[in-house]
Design a protein that fits this description.
Helices cover 52% and strands 15% of the residues. Bound molecules: zinc ion.
C-alpha cells in the first residue's frame, strides 16, 4: 500500500489533486469511500477536533484502517484543524496519516516555534505522518455564514510562505489564497461562486516548492479549482458542501415514509446525496470531468 506522501507525489506529477472530505458520522464515510472506489482514485477523509470528539479519535481511525485493509484501497485519514499539541499527539497515536496543525491565529514567530516543536514530537511517534502547517486567515467554521468575513488582510504572501516552510520543515502548507471556510446562502443556492487568487498560488508554489492544500473549497467555481490545481494545489478540502448534502439527503430519506424507523432504509438517501457531491468533486480534482 502506498503512503500518503507517495500518493501526493504521484498526484503532483500528474497535475491532479487528492480530494479531502470531512466526515462526522459513518454514513459520510460510506459515501466518500463509495465515490472514491467507483472512480478508483485515492481519497483523504478528515476529522476536525469537533468531528473527532463526536466520532471518537481511535474509533474513526479503526474504521478507516479497516476499509483500507479490507479493500486494499488508498483511503487516508487526516486530523483536520488541530489547535493543540495534545490533540495532534492523540491523532498520531491513533494512526492518523496526517495532521493539520493549525496555529494560524498566533503571531508568525510563535506559530513557527510551536509548529516546529510539534513536528519533532509527532515524527518521533510516527516518522511517516505528514504535518501540515497553516498561515494566513481563511475564516473558521464549515457552516452557512450570513456575511462574508473580510479575509483580504490575511492573504499569505509568497515570502512569508517560504520563511514558514523553511523554518518549520512542514510537509504540507495551507495558505490563504482567497479561499474561505464555510459558504454564504447565495453559494449554497449556486448563484454566487468563490474565486481564488490563482497568481498567488503559483507564486507560493514557486517560493516554497511545498505540497499545498486548499482549505474551504466548497462553493468555489470549477474553473478556479482546475486552475488552482494546475498552479500547484495538491489537496482540496470540501466540508460545507458535504454537510448541506447530508442534511438534504437525510430530510429526503425521512420524507419518503413518515413511519419508517429502520435506519438502513432511511439513510441510503443521505448516502446517495453525499456521494453525489464527493463524486463530482473527485472527478474535477482528478481530471475525469
Ligand atoms: Zn480547513
Amino acid at each position: 500500500m502506498l503512503s500518503l506522501r507517495n500518493v501526493l507525489e504521484q498526484a503532483q506529477k500528474r497535475a491532479v489533486a487528492v480530494g479531502h472530505f470531512n466526515i462526522a458520522d459513518f454514513i459520510m464515510l460510506k459515501a466518500v469511500f463509495a465515490a472514491a472506489q467507483e472512480l478508483q482514485v485515492p481519497v483523504i477523509v478528515g476529522a476536525s477536533e469537533g468531528e473527532r470528539k463526536f466520532l471518537g479519535t481511535r474509533a474513526v481511525a479503526a474504521l478507516v484502517h479497516e476499509l483500507r485493509d479490507e479493500f486494499s484501497f488508498p483511503i487516508f485519514l487526516n486530523a483536520d484543524h488541530t489547535h493543540s499539541l495534545q490533540g495532534a499527539i492523540e491523532a498520531a497515536h491513533a494512526g492518523f496519516d496526517s495532521v493539520v496543525f493549525d496555529l494560524s491565529a498566533l503571531a508568525m514567530q510563535e506559530n513557527i516555534r510551536q509548529t516546529r516543536e510539534a513536528i519533532a514530537q509527532l515524527k518521533a511517534i510516527n516518522p511517516d505522518m505528514l504535518v501540515e502547517g497553516e498561515i494566513g486567515d481563511i475564516g473558521t467554521g464549515s457552516e452557512i455564514h450570513d456575511f462574508a468575513p473580510d479575509l483580504t488582510k490575511g492573504l499569505t504572501s509568497p515570502a512569508e510562505a517560504r520563511d514558514f516552510v523553511q523554518a518549520t520543515g512542514v510537509d504540507v502548507l495551507a495558505p490563504a489564497v482567497g479561499n474561505m471556510h464555510g459558504m454564504l446562502q447565495s453559494m449554497v443556492q449556486g448563484n454566487v461562486k468563490k474565486h481564488l487568487d490563482l497568481a498567488r498560488i503559483a507564486q507560493i508554489k514557486a517560493s516554497t516548492g511545498s505540497l499545498l492544500t486548499l482549505h474551504g473549497a466548497s462553493g468555489t467555481a470549477d474553473e478556479d479549482l482546475r486552475k488552482a490545481i494546475a498552479a500547484g494545489i495538491n489537496i482540496v478540502h470540501i466540508n460545507t458542501e458535504m454537510r448541506v448534502a447530508w442534511r438534504r439527503g437525510l430530510e429526503a430519506g425521512l420524507a419518503q415514509d413518515p413511519h419508517e424507523m429502520v435506519p438502513y432504509k432511511v439513510l441510503p438517501a443521505a448516502i446517495e446525496s453525499i456521494k453525489q457531491v464527493a463524486t463530482s468533486r473527485l472527478k474535477l480534482f482528478n481530471k475525469l470531468a
